[in-house]
Amino acid sequence: MTATAADLDRTVDDVARRATAASTPLAQAAPAVRADALRRAAAALGDHADELVALAQAETGLAETRLRGELTRTRVQLRLFAQVVTEGSYLDVRLDEADPDFVLGPRPDLRRTLWPVGPVLNFAASNFPFAFSVAGGDTAAALAVGCPVIVKAHPGHPRLSERVAGLVGAALVEAGLPEGTLQLVAAQDAGVALLDHPAVRAAAFTGSQRVGQLLAARAAARPTPIPFFGELGSVNPVLVTEAALRERADTLLAGYVASVSGSAGQLCTKPGFLLVPEGTAYDAAVVAAAADVPEHRLLNPAIADGYERRVAQALGADGVRVVHAGTLRRDDDEQGWVTPTVAAVSLDDLRAAGPTLLDEVFGPFSVIVEYPAGTDLADVVAELFPGNLTVTLHLGAHEADADRAALVARLGGHAGRVLLGGWPTGVAVTPAMQHGGPWPATTTDGTSVGTAAVGRFLRGVTYQDAPQELLPPPLRDDNPWDVPRTVSPRGASQQW
């Protein structure tokens, strides 16, 4: 074994050992302690906002306004999950009283709750250096329910990752959580080795479909397979009816361009396709809106390379017409500066092009698809866009009828979020949010945004006929954590 390999093994084993040591005390920590720790972490990020935003700007090229908003979102996520911990319904506590007269035969005393799975490995994203990185939603959700977190830092913002990990890790320990609650690794080999390590009990990933599939397959192929939540990208089709265009075409098309070009199109919810009726006049409005978009730096040279390659492939497909030709400029550091490109194609030509057009283009590029009269839009989504984070439907003012309700119901089978109007970019951090969708948008139907995100890092455990002294706190009769509980009382089965 080479020295490098030996050093890697020691690093991985040491990180895994610390996470394992933290697991039991973290899981058993009172909700008030975990909630206080999350709030302290949010405060630490706020206290160093200017420093952190400057670091993020230098490493990612994202605008200051965007980054300050994202940092606020990250802090809100931490505080939101602190409320989840304190309220306690996420534990889904169920108590079945012992019942000798149970309708199916004598029933023992059964008490069920959800318990943390153990150490979680979180692969940070490039395009959200705060909200989907070291202290982002995946980390916050796992910490909230009592899982130690090991973050594989993204190479696109290494200095920011180290600084955030230092601030948040210190805040967690100061609040009384164990050492090893939050750890950071930087090397790609270390991240992969940890995915294989028996101490790691679940993993989360936000990134490309190719890398996500490789990691998901590796997690499934372990001697002890583990849950792997991967967000792998999405093209987020937007469907527009003739009535909607007739009523508000200019406003709608301007909103479309703004959604495509925000943060240089480097958002997982960017609308990659806009489906409009054949014969729609859209060129002038799209060109006018796109001409006002200033150039924006892409995250790093590798992303610029990928964007340039994919745009060339898409524009080279048969039947594709350029509506607005954007630009790609390289600076002295090989960073790419871009303005939006919008193309158009018929529905038949889109079908013929297949993956050349249908695969995601990460950056400010989108395709307008013209569909013939009488097209069943739900069939088109099922055929060409079967799994996405979002599907958006723009209707006319008087189109909320039974036929449209049936369409909306069918669209829900192909996306985690169905929008009736508006634009998919901008994901509200709130209890009812679903940020996940059918394959290939994500590897499971969980969510990485909103309070339901904690469910990815929990497993059910039932205790049968256990003495009070041996039960975890939420299952004891005195309910010291004061969490909501569902009780199935003795004798109730006689009324079933």
Automatic annotation (TrEMBL):
Residues covered by region (Disordered): 468-496
InterPro entries: Ald_DH/histidinol_DH, Ald_DH_C, Ald_DH_N, Aldehyde_DH_dom, Aldehyde_DH_Superfamily
Keyword Oxidoreductase: yes
The UniProt record lists the keyword Membrane: no
The organism of origin for this protein: Promicromonospora thailandica
GO molecular function: oxidoreductase activity, acting on the aldehyde or oxo group of donors, NAD or NADP as acceptor
Domain Aldehyde dehydrogenase residue range list: 10-372
Alphabetical keyword list: Oxidoreductase
One protein family per Pfam: Aldedh
Full protein name: NADP-dependent aldehyde dehydrogenase
